[in-house]
Write a structure and sequence with these properties.
The structure holds two protein chains of two kinds.
Chain A (H helix, E strand, L loop, with lengths): L1 H28 L4 H6 L5 H11 L5 H13 L5 E2 L4 E2 H36 L4 H14 L3 H15 L15 H35 L2 H8 L4 H29 L3 H6 L5 H10 L3 H29 L14
Chain B lengths: L3 E13 L4 E13 L3 E5 L6 H8 L8 E10 L2 E2 L5 H7 L4 E4 L3 H4 L6 H12 L4 H14 L5 H4 L9 H13 L5 E5 L7 H18 L2 E6 L2 H7 L2 E6 L2 E7 H6 L4 H16 L32 H5 L5 E4 L2 E3 L20
Parallel strand pairs in B: 3-8, 3-9, 6-7, 7-8
Antiparallel strand pairs in B: 1-2, 1-4, 4-5, 9-10, 10-12, 11-12
Classes of the chains: A mainly alpha, B alpha/beta.
The structure holds adenosine-5'-diphosphate, iron/sulfur cluster (SF4) and magnesium ion.
Chain lengths: 321, 337
Amino acid sequence: MGTYIIRRTFDLLPTIFVVAVIVFIITRLIPGDPAAVMLGPQASVEDIEALRENLGLNDPLYIQFLQYMGNLATGDFGTSLTYNQPIVNLIMDRFPNTLILAVSALIIAFMVGVPAGIISASKQNSLLDYSVMLVSLIGVSMPIFWLGVMLVLYFSVNLGWFPATGMGTLDDGLIPFIKHLILPSITLATIPMATFARITRSSMLEVISQDYIKTARSKGLNEFWVICKHAFKNALTPLLTVLGMQISMMLGGAVLTETIFSWPGMGRLIVDAIDKRDFVVVQGTVLFIAVIFVVVNLLVDIMYKVVNPRVNYTTSKGGTK
Amino acid sequence: MSDLLLKVEDLEVHFRSSSSIVKAVNGVSFTLNKKETLGIVGESGSGKSVTATALLRLIPNPPGNITGGMMLFEGTDLLSLSDKDMRSVRGNEISMIFQDPMTSLNPVFKVGDQIMESIRAHRKVSKKEAKAAAVDMLKLVGIPEAEKRINMYPHEFSGGMRQRVMVAIALACKPKLLIADEPTTALDVTVQAQILDLMRHLQDTIDTSIIMITHDLGVVWEICDKVIVMYAGNTVESGSVKTIYENPLHPYTWGLLDSQITSEISNEEGLSAIPGSPPDLREEMPGCHFADRCPYAQEICFSAKPEMVEVEEGHSVSCHFQTKNTRLQRKERVYHG
Ligand SMILES: Nc1ncnc2c1ncn2[C@@H]1O[C@H](COP(=O)(O)OP(=O)(O)O)[C@@H](O)[C@H]1O
Ligand code: SF4
Ligand SMILES: [Mg+2]
């Protein structure tokens, strides 16, 4: 297991390299002169030329590439002109906020969605099952923007229970911090919660009809134990896949949720950067998010192995038979 | 105290679907004494597994339900037990092993844990004691290097070894009754013989009764004391193995015997020499369930249902023409036309 993790971690390096190359190419493929775009229509030719020189855009492409890779290797993601700050600082500023929102949304989604799916599957075709499925169908197709606005209108404007926008800091105390967190978390949690419920239900249904569940019952175990231990652990694999996807997506920044609630996270950073045509920031954050995807993927692969002993050590994902 | 362990009477199990009711088991009766082995034979779909599952009250509900009958186990009707009391019977007093050892062990738990779980569900023992008991069980079922094997997962075992593990799980609490639902059907012929040997040997070691479900009469002759022949949810013939071996009376049993000879000649498993297929269990049948396929059928067979009649001591048959006073003449290899 230990060697597996180490080997898989080294496997990440080429992937990250390829991602970096792709990000580099894409930003160079964007039509138009980035310097001109950044400075806007009023800029003089001299200003644009100065910025081009500054950004290294006048160097041959391979020099630019080597420069970029060299910088990356030393942990330098570049410096934003609009923010006048190293990209690393911008990301380190925003990423914790995104992380807080994502973690609390995931906790809500998991704590509600997974048990709902389990109960639904163990009472298949009951009224309860149908209700859970209906609610989760509404959940997955929920327009997040609309939901966020409705939550704000009702709980902030009408009832005044929670602040409408912004993020509290822990310095203000735990209660205001949590109050700021609740509405955005629920908004962000809705789709994953419904997705978890549906995936859990369908994979539990598949597992519950297996022979080993009958074996577990024939041993005299109680039904709770049969479902939560014997069935659930077998149903985890598809759930982990979806969980990994959701985590990656959330950590990349929840653009809609962060916009509705003015949450200072990664999503807003990217949107603002695109708005301001700050391509250095776009390049740096996209690369950062890509790295997160890759790392989360690795963690999910490791989790597969933890829950499923049949996954082969020599390949990344083994068959089940 | 009598030797009687289990008495099943008129067991009925029905499965309900939106449009119909499948009468999977329709009045099955038998008795089983302590340390005895009862065989249940019949083609696939005749209700053997459902009967076995009903004994543990594990019929999935919905859609299934035990709609009638009695299952007296040591004098107590299992149907009258609370869910909790029934759980303390399962795996403890009555255990079951299944047909396919490749799917009946949980793939994500260690073999040892799966044995220990069985023990700890019914005995107040420490983890360490349960582990020692699990190792003992593995040794008992003939798995070498038990101490090491206990930490392995099912996929690291061969089919035969997995079935041995299932036997270890089933016998861990020394049950009074072991139900084996076609335990060798999915295995190679040589392994089949080993598993049967093991079961016979362990039956003597821990004094358990066995219900052996099979579609292979050879298995019955080899290890059973008594046998019931099932067809379409009914018992059609029952008696001691000796009687039925020497004097089979029901036309369906004759068909099974012929098909067994055919499969031995052609070496093909499960090949049925009885033409036609079992009846649709959703339909109400006024006559003998076997009438459509029976070479001896007369008009009465389609209109009146034959009762189980004791035609000689300890030998019952349900056929209009096999009674205390009348006998059908068995035709030679009639099922081959
Ligand atoms: N879960 C179920 N739902 C509906 N019908 C079932 C179910 N289980 C078994 N049956 C029906 O019961 C009948 C007997 O099945 P079974 O006992 O498995 O036969 P076998 O003798 O091969 O073990 C079959 O016709 C089958 O269709
Ligand atoms: S009752 Fe008739 S149909 Fe049924 S087994 Fe006897 S002869 Fe055949
Ligand atoms: Mg069966």
